[in-house]
Design brief:
CATH superfamily of the largest domain: MetI-like
Order of helices and strands: HHHHHHHHHHHHHHHH
Largest sheet: none
Number of domains: 2
CATH topology of the largest domain: MetI-like fold
Distance between the termini: 12 Å
C-alpha cells in the first residue's frame, strides 16, 4: 500500500507538468521565424493563397486561439500533420522515436559498463594508474563534442579501415528490414527471426553507440568516483574495515550506498540524450526523433516540434517515475 500511495502522489503532478510543458513549448515554437504557409506554398505564392492556407490551418487567429485549437486536437489524440512528410506526426514519431530510444539505451548501457568500474576503481585505488587514467578520461570525455568523435570514428573505421558499414541509417539498403512490430529493429529482427537484418542492425549501431557511450561515460565515472570516495571515508565503511570484512564486501557496501547518486545521473543523461543525441543522429543519418524535430524547426514545421516535445516530456516523466521507484527500493528512508 505504501508504494501505491507513493506512486499516486507522483501521478498528481503529471497533469500540471505536462500542461506547463505544452504551454511553454507552444509559445517558444511560435517565436521561430518563418511562416509555415510560405514554406509550404513556396516563394511564388500570392498573399491570397498564403492567407487562405493560414485560415485552413488555424494560424490566422491569436496565440490563445491557436493554443486552444491545438489543445482540442491533442485531447482527441491528433498531433497534427507534418507538411514535410505529409504524414500524421504521431505516425512519424512512432517510427522515429524507437530509433532514438534504441540508440541511447544501448549507449547508456555501454557507458555504465565503462564508467562504473572505472569510477569504483579510481575511488578505491587512489594512488594508482587507474586513478590517473580515470581523471584524464573524465576530463577528456567532458570536453569532446560527440559529433566530432563520431566523424573521427567514421573516418577511421569506415573510410580508412573499411570494417564498419556506411553511416547511412539503421540498416543496409540491400537488407530487407523486418516487419514493423515495435519499430525497434533489434527486437523486430528477433521476432521475425531475420538474422541478416539483426546482424546489419547491430553493425550500424556500433559506431554511434560507441560515440555516445565514450562521451557519456565521463559524467557517470565522475559521479561514481565522487560518491564512492565519500562513502569509503564514511564512519560506516571505516567501521566495516576495522571489523576485518573482506575488501569485496566493503566495496559492495559502499557501492550500494552510492547507487542513488548514480541512478540520478543516469536518469538525467537519459532524458538529455532524447534530444541531445541529435547531432550524432545527423552524422550517422539515423533518422531519429531528434533529427525529425530539428528539421521541423529549420522548415517552420511546428507540429513535429511540438509532437517531439510532448513525446519527450511523457518519456522523461516516466523515467523519473521509474527512478523514484528505484529510490523507493534501495533507500529505506523513503519507504519510512
Amino acid at each position: 500500500m505504501r508504494i501505491l500511495r507513493y506512486i499516486g502522489r507522483r501521478f498528481l503532478f503529471i497533469g500540471p507538468q505536462l500542461f506547463g510543458i505544452i504551454l511553454v513549448s507552444f509559445l517558444l515554437v511560435k517565436l521561430i521565424p518563418g511562416d509555415p504557409a510560405v514554406m509550404m506554398l513556396g516563394p511564388f505564392a500570392t498573399e491570397q493563397q498564403i492567407a487562405m492556407l493560414n485560415t485552413e490551418m488555424g494560424l490566422d487567429g491569436t496565440i490563445i486561439d491557436q493554443f486552444w485549437i491545438y489543445l482540442q486536437n491533442l485531447v482527441q489524440g491528433d498531433l497534427g500533420t507534418s507538411w514535410q512528410t505529409t504524414k500524421p506526426v504521431f505516425d512519424d514519431l512512432a517510427i522515429r522515436f524507437p530509433a532514438t530510444l534504441e540508440l541511447i539505451t544501448l549507449s547508456l548501457l555501454l557507458a555504465l559498463l565503462i564508467g562504473i568500474p572505472l569510477g569504483v576503481a579510481a575511488a578505491y585505488f587512489k594512488r594508482s594508474i587507474v586513478k590517473k587514467f580515470s581523471d584524464y578520461y573524465g576530463l577528456l570525455a567532458g570536453s569532446l563534442p560527440d559529433f566530432w568523435l563520431g566523424l573521427i570514428l567514421i573516418y577511421l573505421f569506415y573510410t580508412v579501415m573499411q570494417v564498419a558499414p556506411p553511416p547511412l541509417g539503421r540498416i543496409d539498403f540491400a537488407v530487407l528490414p523486418p516487419a514493423p512490430v515495435t519499430n525497434f529493429l533489434i527486437i523486430d529482427s528477433l521476432i521475425a527471426g531475420n538474422w541478416q537484418a539483426l546482424w546489419s542492425t547491430l553493425g550500424h549501431l556500433v559506431l554511434p553507440v560507441v560515440t555516445l557511450a565514450v562521451i557519456n561515460a565521463g559524467p557517470i565515472l565522475k559521479m561514481t568516483q565522487a560518491t564512492m570516495e565519500r562513502m569509503l571515508e564514511s564512519d560506516l565503511i571505516r567501521y566495516a574495515e576495522m571489523c576485518g570484512l573482506p575488501k569485496q564486501v566493503v566495496i559492495r557496501k559502499a557501492f550500494r550506498n552510492s547507487l542513488p547518486s548514480i541512478v540520478t545521473i543516469v536518469s538525467v543523461l537519459y532524458g538529455f540524450l532524447i534530444g541531445g543525441a541529435v547531432l550524432v543522429e545527423i552524422v550517422f543519418s539515423w533518422g531519429g526523433a531528434g533529427q525529425y524535430a530539428v528539421q521541423g524547426v529549420l522548415n517552420a514545421d511546428i507540429n513535429p516540434v511540438l509532437g517531439f516535445v510532448l513525446f519527450s516530456a511523457i518519456l522523461s516523466l516516466v523515467i523519473y517515475l521509474v527512478v523514484d521507484l528505484i529510490y523507493f527500493a534501495i533507500d529505506p528512508r523513503i519507504r519510512g
